[in-house]
Amino acid sequence: MLEVKQVSKLYENRRGVEQMDFSMSRGEIVGFLGPNGAGKTTTMRMITGYLNPTRGSILVDGLSMADHPKKARSKIGYLPETPPLYPEMTVQAYLRFIADLRDIPVREQKTRIGEVVEKLGLQGREKQIIRSLSKGYKQRIGLAQAILHQPDLLILDEPTSGLDPKQIIEIRGLIRELGENHTVLLSTHILPEVNAICNRVLIINQGRIVLDDRPDNIGSSMGETFEMSVEIKGPREDVIRQLGTMPEIGGVKEAEEPLEMDAETVKLRLTAADRTDIREAVFYKLASLGYPILEMKRESLSLEDVFLKLTTTEEKGADAETAAEEVEEHA
């Protein structure tokens, strides 16, 4: 659905985007992460045709953004971080305006507008002036304009920004629903949001992709050693000694806060000798000793841990990059 091939955007004396290379299939919801100034906005603007890459190519459903910009853009819905709204218009008038811009046939506009109004919970707000609405409702209207023409590819930049918890849950549910039939590239600073709705993660730092993997596979891709926490009913010294003799286990560490409710219960953190899953071996070992396992849980790097590990402190020129984008966009 989307192919970004060796794309770079260069600015004089500034870092831009370098050799960006990834593809997305229909039905994928991809989280696009990176610190401020890393190149996320530059990349999204190139994908949507707002910026031209210095080199490389972008294909949307097989259409080159450089050779067939109008057709390629017709397949994209874009919600920038600041929704592109006209505050003096009513919600209904604005959506009709967008329908005209998107060449939606007049006979279909009423039905299409009604569908997005219902889907985004805008019923009863159609005749209100956009200026008078809350930030949450303005965000909904921004998302409505992005999906009104039923695009194949959705580019969403901070779609839940400014929403209350109930609205966030509703918008996340909508994004999941859209991901069943559409391709979604989602930029967000809310990392738990990526775990909640994305089936793939791209992390960009200093203009380059530093991670491209599924959220549940991040630990393995980082070369993480297998670790687990376990709570066991049995004599502390013997449990620790017995587990320490297992060749599969490289380290046994007691929990920082020992359990006080039962002297015969111990909570440990076990590290495998390599990246092998040791849960089954631990289960059979303790079962043979007659020590019941009360709780067993795999421990792995969180997305937050991975993000911090892969990204570095941005340079002072990061804001200049954004400024350069703005100048070129309005040139």
Description:
This protein is an alpha/beta fold and 331 residues long. The chain has two domains: 2-220, Rossmann fold (3-Layer(aba) Sandwich), CATH 3.40.50.300; 224-299, Alpha-Beta Plaits (2-Layer Sandwich). Helices cover 35% and strands 27% of the residues. It is built from twelve helices and 14 strands. The protein has helices spanning 40-47, 69-73, 91-101, 106-119, 135-147, 165-179, 191-197, 218-221, 236-244, 279-289, 303-310, 318-329, and strands spanning 2-11, 14-24, 29-33, 55-60, 63-64, 76-79, 153-157, 183-187, 200-205, 208-213, 227-233, 249-254, 265-272, 293-299. Strands 6-7-8-3-9-10 form a six-stranded mixed β-sheet, with helices on both faces. A four-stranded antiparallel β-sheet has the order 2-1-4-5. It has a four-stranded antiparallel β-sheet with strand order 12-13-11-14, with helices on one face. Strand 1 (2-11) and strand 2 form a beta hairpin. Helix 3 packs across helix 4 (106-119). The longest helix has 15 residues, at 165-179. The radius of gyration is 25 Å and the shape is elongated. The relative contact order is 0.15. Residues 314-331 have low confidence and may be disordered.
